[in-house]
Design goal:
Layout: H1 21-28, E1 32-36, E2 39-42, H2 44-63, E3 67-68, E4 74-76, H3 77-83, H4 85-88, E5 95-97, E6 103-106, H5 111-121, E7 130-139, E8 154-164, H6 167-187, E9 192-196, E10 207-213, E11 219-224, E12 230-232, E13 253-256, H7 263-270, E14 278-285, E15 288-295, H8 302-309, E16 314-316, H9 319-326, E17 342-345, H10 346-349, E18 354-357, E19 363-368, E20 378-380, E21 399-414, H11 416-420, E22 424-426, E23 432-434, E24 436-443, H12 444-454, E25 456-457, E26 460-461, E27 472-476, H13 482-497, E28 502-505, H14 511-521, E29 525-529, H15 531-535, E30 539-543, E31 549-552, H16 554-569
The protein binds adenosine-5'-triphosphate and magnesium ion.
Length: 571
């Protein structure tokens, strides 16, 4: 592609409304433009990278035996009513009406639609296993679209759905997808981890998220420094260490803590670690107040708590509700004398002589102990694990925390949708049975964005070769100079003949401008053609990532680029 005839609207300044680096760089490199909140146009460079990821995904899905289809984006409400999600999905589902007043929605995911296809077409166990996938535009009316393609409202997803005759088959299909996902993200050049994830209302231990490691990630994940345990913090567990059970109980003491409400304020004031305090948090579970007890430095995990209580809705109680339910001032809440249902985190069980609120303004209680001062009947794991916790799977391992971006998700669905939509088949004995399903998603645009989060420097993007919009850029330093133009054209023709993807910067621009743009858009290899070096029959080959530069003959430069690219692509 000749730069002068192409469309790469680069921008010098960092756009003010872009918070994360991938969003900033995708705008600056002219890859995408925003049309409305969370809705983007893909410009040529952006589209090329998107297509590369799509192709890697497509190749690996095909290799794993999945079959590509394409389902509609506009889907009828009736299907969603059958599965119960028309009512459940909430505002993320963009609902529309046609001219005849029929209700539709824009597909945020396609379990209903694909299950409808399968229930109509699959009759016999012989037709399975079956895995159908598509690469398609989704719409979710996200409450906070942000970070560019990372969390859009309209975005491209690969979604696959497997259909099996029994659980064993479903497990095998899941494993195939899990392995395909590993290959996909490896081929994209990403540093990632597959972590155990929460399975929501479906339950079971069969969900993994593929997380790209990045500080800007919205998810917190943990991994063990000793074994291969890794999980989303939403789900992660740790081994409970019984710490102070043998400690002698000291006499209960009421202490004056004027205006000290938060754990931080109380522990600073009393000069004790936050880990020696116990906090009481009140939640509303299906509109009923429930109190929780956690060690002061621990965070409540609402997903775990929701499971323990078995409720549908859970939210933190408002100050008003707390005041009514506990008759205690906010900030000085404690378990002693409370009639509320109290669920304590298992860590609290091993604590002795701790601090709690006295249920009285400006007072806390010191040297509090279970049984002697109050009794708890319900203990459960309801907290987020923290850095340094003991691994739940191995002995001696320690949990480390990371930030991650979820780029893919594999999920064993079981019979949730097939049951609701009555997708059945006849087994070898002629008995009617319900199909076992799995679903598997990859965010295509999010994958490109996370790749940029991991691969950039102060000058711009550093694309890994497999998903770079072009593999090589030729910067002709003064294309008006005949020798430069001829040599550049020759290199361009030779690289194209080798089947490489080349951007030829033939613009009448200063070298500085060309170098800046080349760095910004992140093309991995650059051949610089200048009159001075040409006098000695040389051009420069520069590696974007390392900054390394070599002076080579035209032949050598061409063959070097060819080798590097093909090696990176594994061909
Ligand atoms: P998140 O927790 O980030 O909202 P999700 O659990 O809703 O993700 P899935 O329903 O599992 O996501 O969708 C499959 C994949 O689609 C995700 O792994 C992610 O890569 C991508 N994805 C989901 N929501 C968005 C979005 N708003 N913008 C871009 N990609 C998205
Ligand atoms: Mg979501």
């Amino acid at each position: 592609m000749r730069y002068s005839q192409y469309f790469i609207p680069t921008v010098k300044e960092t756009p003010a409304d872009a918070e994360v680096v991938s969003h900033q760089l995708m705008l600056r490199a002219g890859m995408v433009r925003k049309l409305a909140a969370g809705i983007y146009s893909y410009l040529p460079l952006g589209l090329r990278s998107i297509r590369k990821v799509e192709n890697i995904v497509r190749e690996e899905m095909d290799k794993a035996g999945a079959i590509e289809i394409l389902m509609p984006m506009v889907t009828p409400a009736e299907l969603w009513e059958e599965s119960g999600r028309w009512a459940q999905y909430g505002k993320e589902l963009l609902r529309i009406k046609d001219r005849k007043d029929n209700q539709f929605c824009l597909g945020p995911t396609h379990e209903e639609v694909v299950t409808d296809i399968v229930r109509r077409e699959i009759r016999s166990y012989r037709q399975m296993p079956l895995n159908l996938y598509q690469i398609q535009t989704k719409f979710r009316d996200e409450i906070r679209p942000r970070f560019g393609l990372m969390r859009g409202r309209e975005f491209i997803m690969k979604d696959a759905y497997s259909f099996d005759v029994d659980e064993k088959g479903a497990d095998a299909s899941y494993e195939k997808m899990y392995q395909a996902y590993r290959r996909i993200f490896e081929r994209c050049g990403l540093k990632f981890r597959a972590v155990e994830a929460d399975t929501g209302s479906i339950g079971g231990n069969w969900s993994h998220e593929f997380m790209v490691l990045a500080d800007s990630g919205e998810d917190a994940i943990v991994s063990c420094n000793n074994c291969n345990y890794a999980a989303n913090v939403e789900k992660a567990e740790s081994r409970v260490i019984k710490s102070a059970e043998h400690c002698e109980p000291r006499p209960l003491e009421k202490v004056h803590t004027p205006g000290k409400k938060s754990i931080q304020e109380v522990s600073d004031f009393l000069q004790i670690p936050a880990a020696a305090t116990v906090k009481m948090l009140v939640v509303m579970a299906d509109n009923k107040p429930v109190a929780t007890l956690l060690r002061g430095d621990h965070d409540l995990n609402e997903i775990k708590l929701k499971k323990v209580i078995g409720c549908d809705e859970l939210e933190m109680a408002t100050d008003e509700v707390i005041a009514k339910a506990t008759a205690a001032p906010v900030g000085f809440l404690g378990p002693i004398g409370q009639r509320l249902r109290i669920i304590a985190d298992t860590t609290v069980k091993g604590m002795r002589n701790f601090i709690v609120g006295a249920n009285e303004t400006d007072y806390h209680l010191k040297n509090v102990n279970h049984e002697r001062d109050f009794s708890i009947t319900e203990y459960a794991d309801i907290r987020n694990v923290t850095h340094g916790d003991s691994c739940p799977r191995c002995s001696g391992g320690m949990l480390e925390m990371w930030r991650g971006i979820e780029v893919g998700h594999v999920f064993k669905l079981g019979m949730k949708y097939s049951k609701a939509l009555n997708a059945t088949f006849l087994d070898p004995d002629g008995k009617e049975k319900i199909v076992f399903m799995g679903c598997y998603g990859i965010g295509i645009g999010r994958t490109v964005a996370s790749c940029i989060e991991q691969n950039h420097d102060e000058n711009g993007i550093i694309f890994p070769i497999p998903i770079a919009p072009f593999q090589c850029i030729i910067s002709a330093l003064n294309p008006k100079d005949d020798s430069v133009r001829l040599a550049s054209e020759e290199i361009y023709a030779k690289l194209l003949a080798l089947g490489l993807e080349v951007l030829y910067d033939d613009r009448d621009e200063r070298p500085g401008v060309k170098f800046k743009d080349a760095d910004l858009i992140g093309i991995p290899l650059r051949i610089v053609v200048g009159a001075k070096n040409l006098l000695e029959g040389r051009v420069e080959l520069k590696h974007r990532r390392s900054g390394a530069m070599e002076l080579l003959s035209i032949e050598e430069a061409v063959s070097s680029v060819n080798t590097i690219v093909k090696e990176a692509l594994g061909i």
